């Protein structure tokens, strides 16, 4: 069951990244982040009220607050890195965040079997290759690499923190709500600072009308991201974190396949090989 939850996480994160990428072609990235998370807050708030999840308030929710604070910082660092360096280098490096929850699992005493260790190694290599790394002709600024590593650590930290934020299903709803409220506060603050500095917050074409017409897509991105965090927390609770984290980090493969299916982008040979290795790693992990 843990493996299924983790694979569902990859599917939803991959589709959310794909949808978010499409939206950022039409409007500022920070606007996409804040707007999509606002929709998630409204939906999660309704779920918390309907299920009575607010009764499970406790000190463990500080993990959710921390995850909510780290997430926007990681995302903004990642977007900045993409602006400075070639995507074919930055995107695969960003997936190195999987090392954080894997490291936490090992520190907590988890010891995967030999077959699972092999699956972890194969899957991680597959994810890196699926991003389509550029092995030559791609000059990368040191700042871009540092920002990418900050983003990767942030993404991994969110995975580790949200897994510790609840012990029950209704508690998970509350934890996700707290995380998203913190996301909106942190992202909204960054958006305010951006406006003060004169940066645009609305699309050049259509302005607010474009944002309103994109609400269904923004809702999908925000809710898919929330659902992915939820299924990852369940995966980490019902099985080894080391395995759940790696399986949940297969989302670059989903994003690449979505681009192939929807945008008709052709997969490079290295991406196809990476997708195959990721699948092989998944089989080894499940078999172990």
UniProtKB/TrEMBL annotation:
Signal peptide: none annotated. InterPro entries: EamA_dom, EmrE-like. It holds the Pfam family EamA. The chain crosses the membrane at residues 6-23, 30-55, 61-82, 89-108, 114-132, 144-163, 169-193, 214-235, 241-263, 270-287. Residues 3-130, 144-285 form the EamA domain. GO terms for cellular component: membrane. Keywords: Membrane, Transmembrane, Transmembrane helix. Belongs to the EamA transporter family. This is EamA family transporter. It comes from Streptomyces boluensis.
């Amino acid at each position: 069951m843990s493996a299924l939850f983790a694979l569902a996480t990859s599917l939803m994160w991959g589709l959310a990244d794909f949808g978010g990428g499409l939206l950022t072609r039409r409007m500022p990235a920070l606007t996409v982040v804040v707007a999509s998370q606002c929709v998630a807050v409204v939906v999660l708030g309704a779920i918390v009220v309907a299920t009575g999840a607010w009764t499970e308030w406790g000190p463990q929710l500080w993990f959710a607050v921390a995850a909510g604070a780290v997430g926007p910082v990681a995302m903004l660092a990642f977007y900045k890195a993409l602006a400075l360096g070639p995507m074919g280098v930055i995107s695969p490096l960003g997936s190195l965040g999987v090392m954080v929850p894997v490291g936490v699992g090992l520190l907590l005493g988890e010891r995967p079997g030999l077959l699972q260790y092999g699956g972890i190694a194969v899957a991680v290599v597959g994810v890196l290759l699926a991003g389509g790394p550029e092995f030559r002709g791609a000059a990368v600024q040191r700042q871009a690499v540092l920002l990418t590593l900050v983003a990767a650590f942030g993404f991994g930290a969110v995975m580790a923190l949200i897994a510790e934020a609840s012990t029950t299903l209704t508690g998970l709803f509350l934890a996700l709500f707290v995380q998203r409220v913190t996301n909106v506060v942190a992202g909204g603050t960054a958006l305010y600072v951006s406006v003060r500095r004169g940066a645009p917050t609305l699309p050049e074409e259509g302005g607010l009308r474009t944002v309103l017409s994109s609400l269904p897509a923004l809702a999908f991105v925000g809710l898919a991201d929330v659902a992915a965090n939820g299924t990852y927390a369940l995966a980490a609770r019902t099985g080894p974190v080391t395995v759940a984290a790696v399986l949940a980090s297969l989302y670059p493969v989903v994003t690449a396949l979505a681009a192939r299916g929807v945008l008709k982008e052709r997969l490079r040979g290295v991406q196809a090989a990476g997708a195959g290795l990721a699948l092989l790693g998944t089989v080894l992990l499940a078999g172990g």
